[in-house]
Amino acid sequence: MDKFTPFSFVFMAAIISVTMFSSFSTVNGDDRKVHIVYMGSLTEEQPEYSPTSLHLSILQEVLGDGISPANSLVRSYKRSINGFAAKLTDRERQNLALKKGVVSVFPSRILHPQTTRSWDFMGLTEKAKREPAVESDTIIGVIDTGIWPESESFTDEGFGPPPKKWKGACRGGRNFTCNNKLIGARYYLPEINSTRDIVGHGTHTASTAAGNNVNNANFYGIAQGIARGGVPSARIAAYAVCDVNGCTDVAILAAFDDAIADGVDIITVSLGSMFSVDIKEDSIAIGSFHAMERGILTINSAGNSGPYSSSVSSVAPWLLTVAANTIDRRIIDKVVLGNGKTLIGNSVNSFKSNGKKVPIVFGKSASRSCLESSAQSCDENCVDKELAKGKIVVCTESSGAKVALAAGAVGSITVTDIVSNVSFVEPFPVSAINSKGFVLLLSYLNSTKNPRAEILKSEAVNDTAAPRVAEFSSRGPNSIIPEILKPDLSAPGSTKYNILSGTSMSCPHVAGIAAYVKTFHPDWSPSAIKSAIMTTAHPMNIKDGVFASGAGHVNPLGAIHPGLVYNASKEDYIQLLCNFGYNTTTVRSISGDNSTCPKAPKKSSLKDHNYPALAARVLPSKAFKIKFNRTVTNVGRANSTYKVKVLANSKLNITVAPEVLSFKSLKEKQSFVVTVVGGKIKKDNTVLSSFLVWSDGTHRVRSPIVVHIDSGEW
Ligand SMILES: *[C@@H]1O[C@H](CO)[C@@H](O)[C@H](O)[C@H]1NC(C)=O
Ligand SMILES: *[C@@H]1O[C@H](CO)[C@@H](O)[C@H](O)[C@H]1NC(C)=O
Ligand SMILES: *[C@@H]1O[C@H](CO)[C@@H](O)[C@H](O)[C@H]1NC(C)=O
Ligand SMILES: *[C@@H]1O[C@H](CO)[C@@H](O)[C@H](O)[C@H]1NC(C)=O
Ligand SMILES: *[C@@H]1O[C@H](CO)[C@@H](O)[C@H](O)[C@H]1NC(C)=O
Ligand SMILES: *[C@@H]1O[C@H](CO)[C@@H](O)[C@H](O)[C@H]1NC(C)=O
Ligand SMILES: *[C@@H]1O[C@H](CO)[C@@H](O)[C@H](O)[C@H]1NC(C)=O
Ligand SMILES: *[C@@H]1O[C@H](CO)[C@@H](O)[C@H](O)[C@H]1NC(C)=O
Ligand SMILES: *[C@@H]1O[C@H](CO)[C@@H](O)[C@H](O)[C@H]1NC(C)=O
Ligand SMILES: *[C@@H]1O[C@H](CO)[C@@H](O)[C@H](O)[C@H]1NC(C)=O
Ligand SMILES: *[C@@H]1O[C@H](CO)[C@@H](O)[C@H](O)[C@H]1NC(C)=O
């Protein structure tokens, strides 16, 4: 259980201890745990073919005496994906894995949700060019904590009936109605039996991707403006897979099974785990593969486990994985000290100061009963009422604010350098300052007998350093397939509507952009849309590095005119799975066709997968020469000539052949080879990067190049 941690602080507030829901049961003394039995693609279309009876008969073959398959079966996947979830013992799991047609058997994990100047900041203003008729036929599937149907973001004024292609349903549960904006709802947790969002997370991701314009959205009077989604005319289908305890793989796969069959165009999934797992044991990777097969791109958040290396849990090449960055609107709250100095805090304080400074005391000096370390963090029962009453109490832990309040403090200052920690809203004035400010504060407290301070109400300021990748945003490299760069790109992780941040919010931003691109290019493949968004992204601060920001900061207007795309078909992804090491049997189950893998996996070909980024891993202390083969498809002007440029890196010699690509027609393809040569580098975990840019004078088609010096042992 401790493998998974909450990915959003919305959840941090809600989850103190994560409890396992009814995923265990004991039958005949054996522990049975819910597993997913993944059987690949659903290809049989004969009317007599019944996936559920097939699933029950496979189960029957492995279950111990006296256990009925119907009691073991938790759920059958049968609309878009073949497989089922069942309660199994270890032995039954092992036996099932050997059955013909079974690709993988894996335990259902608990995943977590990762938690609007933002659209203006990205350049997609209210006045941007749009295709309203097509946009209104676009459906975004939101796999999340559900949705609040009465939210202003989802009213259906001006919307006609759902698009003809819609095959879904409104099964939101008790007291839940859909409308012509929110056209579909389904839930998957028997503990709740509702699509109503009691957490708030899914409502925010849905409104970020496709919410209506809502005037005067604000948060306690700070950061006023219009809240809106990327494609306000698009329709929404909500799939509830989480409750306050988290989300299960069983539910997530079921949601993909339905969303694909329901006919959504884009799927957004702001969920994930702390660690990456093999693709055939990852419900989001499996579900999104089958979505890709049907032409649906899935957007997934990178995770909130940064800034640590390899913390990105979204690794599949057909997913568009999004990191979180800051935007130019930042919420600050100032602390003014008695000596006139001002410290900048990052929390949200909605309380107006009366202009008076009050006494301020460090937790350490406001405790008579606790050891120094507990006293300075303001642990439970440590803050002395007589010493704290009427004062601002300084605590080194954010949890101390509540303790200070209980002891009669009138404000609290906490210390954190982790930006994702600071938006907790408390019922009294709180400021979260960084460790540099803390040193200044301590020296002030030391310098005077009667220190005083005032916490000002939060204000929105212009952060000119934006966009920078957020500290909490999960980083690459990809620990499963190092040749596939992850995260793919970066988008704003915060919204002005509710000031939630986290990679959760960056994901629906990109889902909105993907839908926007699709309204201009309805026939583009998921990988072409993904390529367009990646290759047009803006460069980000070099200090962030490509393992933090991928291809860069999204550029929605640019993404509709990429010039060239790195396209990939289902067959290309199948080839990649072969090269990764899956055999013909496994690959055929997944693809549902007659694909064949070469006898031995060709790991060396993984880097040649036609990805819009070029990544390779090499060992320390070895000179290297890496060749990447790529093919671009012309989607710009029929007659065009592109010339290559490579960003210099003193540690890499990069050549491209040919250096000029001439196109005569649209959809024409041209291949080229990028050769990257470097000398011996001793230092393990060194990241060398550059950018490859194809330009015809109008379009700039930009791809990151990254070589990771990695022994795998640091
Ligand atoms: C339905 O849910 C809404 C929102 O919680 C609530 O205000 C309303 O009273 C509910 N109606 C019924 C009939 O339960
Ligand atoms: C949810 O529905 C299922 C199936 O109808 C039922 O077994 C379960 O008890 C329900 N759960 C709740 C919390 O009502
Ligand atoms: C961040 O918040 C978590 C949860 O409240 C807490 O455990 C942790 O100590 C905080 N980290 C910092 C640096 O304040
Ligand atoms: C404040 O004073 C205490 C004891 O007098 C000392 O230990 C501490 O280092 C001082 N802190 C600062 C920031 O000057
Ligand atoms: C912040 O400043 C930049 C550069 O001066 C400007 O382009 C941008 O519009 C400003 N943002 C806000 C929210 O005022
Ligand atoms: C990309 O490949 C797919 C499948 O091979 C094809 O249908 C599509 O037309 C290609 N081009 C674009 C721009 O999507
Ligand atoms: C294919 O791989 C699976 C899983 O690794 C293995 O169980 C199976 O025996 C392999 N099949 C063949 C034909 O090698
Ligand atoms: C696979 O090949 C067999 C024999 O060549 C053929 O009968 C079958 O229809 C093919 N299946 C698919 C899914 O293409
Ligand atoms: C690169 O890939 C293309 C398309 O798969 C292929 O036609 C070409 O021969 C390859 N080039 C090299 C040098 O391997
Ligand atoms: C491309 O340019 C050539 C020569 O300049 C011209 O003959 C041809 O018609 C052009 N093709 C298109 C599609 O514009
Ligand atoms: C790059 O090429 C130049 C000229 O051939 C050579 O002097 C240099 O050592 C090379 N650098 C690397 C990192 O291989």
From TrEMBL:
<dbReference type="InterPro" id="IPR034197">
    <property type="entry name" value="Peptidases_S8_3"/>
</dbReference>
<dbReference type="InterPro" id="IPR041469">
    <property type="entry name" value="Subtilisin-like_FN3"/>
</dbReference>
<dbReference type="InterPro" id="IPR010259">
    <property type="entry name" value="S8pro/Inhibitor_I9"/>
</dbReference>
<dbReference type="Pfam" id="PF05922">
    <property type="entry name" value="Inhibitor_I9"/>
</dbReference>
<dbReference type="Pfam" id="PF17766">
    <property type="entry name" value="fn3_6"/>
</dbReference>
<keyword id="KW-0645">Protease</keyword>
<feature type="domain" description="Peptidase S8/S53">
    <location>
        <begin position="136"/>
        <end position="539"/>
    </location>
</feature>
<dbReference type="InterPro" id="IPR023828">
    <property type="entry name" value="Peptidase_S8_Ser-AS"/>
</dbReference>
<dbReference type="GO" id="GO:0006508">
    <property type="term" value="P:proteolysis"/>
</dbReference>
<dbReference type="GO" id="GO:0005576">
    <property type="term" value="C:extracellular region"/>
</dbReference>
<feature type="domain" description="Inhibitor I9">
    <location>
        <begin position="34"/>
        <end position="112"/>
    </location>
</feature>
<keyword id="KW-0964">Secreted</keyword>
<dbReference type="InterPro" id="IPR015500">
    <property type="entry name" value="Peptidase_S8_subtilisin-rel"/>
</dbReference>
<feature type="active site" description="Charge relay system">
    <location>
        <position position="144"/>
    </location>
</feature>
<keyword id="KW-0732">Signal</keyword>
<keyword id="KW-0378">Hydrolase</keyword>
<dbReference type="Pfam" id="PF00082">
    <property type="entry name" value="Peptidase_S8"/>
</dbReference>
<dbReference type="InterPro" id="IPR037045">
    <property type="entry name" value="S8pro/Inhibitor_I9_sf"/>
</dbReference>
<dbReference type="InterPro" id="IPR000209">
    <property type="entry name" value="Peptidase_S8/S53_dom"/>
</dbReference>
<feature type="signal peptide">
    <location>
        <begin position="1"/>
        <end position="29"/>
    </location>
</feature>
<keyword id="KW-0720">Serine protease</keyword>
<feature type="active site" description="Charge relay system">
    <location>
        <position position="504"/>
    </location>
</feature>
<dbReference type="InterPro" id="IPR036852">
    <property type="entry name" value="Peptidase_S8/S53_dom_sf"/>
</dbReference>
<feature type="active site" description="Charge relay system">
    <location>
        <position position="201"/>
    </location>
</feature>
<feature type="domain" description="Subtilisin-like protease fibronectin type-III">
    <location>
        <begin position="608"/>
        <end position="707"/>
    </location>
</feature>
<protein>
    <submittedName>
        <fullName>Subtilisin-like protease</fullName>
    </submittedName>
</protein>
<dbReference type="GO" id="GO:0004252">
    <property type="term" value="F:serine-type endopeptidase activity"/>
</dbReference>
<dbReference type="InterPro" id="IPR045051">
    <property type="entry name" value="SBT"/>
</dbReference>
<comment type="similarity">
    <text>Belongs to the peptidase S8 family.</text>
</comment>
